[in-house]
Amino acid sequence: MHTGALVGPEPIAQGELAVFAEGDGALHFEASVATDLIVGSAVKHPHALVLGRYSVHTSPAALREGEANIVRLGRELRAQGRL
Hints:
By secondary structure, this protein is an alpha+beta fold.
């Protein structure tokens, strides 16, 4: 929700993110006040994804490697006085 509020089974207020169930049906919204909202959709990713704290990867090994690189880069930036 950018501004305003939506009513429904659970109200959605300004600043909140709503995630809807997977499906191909229509979405119906009812605003309780003047409202601006942003709706995004995408094709489901064809592979199982592994969620990290800051990133998404295609395997647990890729997640470990990515997070290790983040740690390494942080150390390098601190050593250079850039962080």
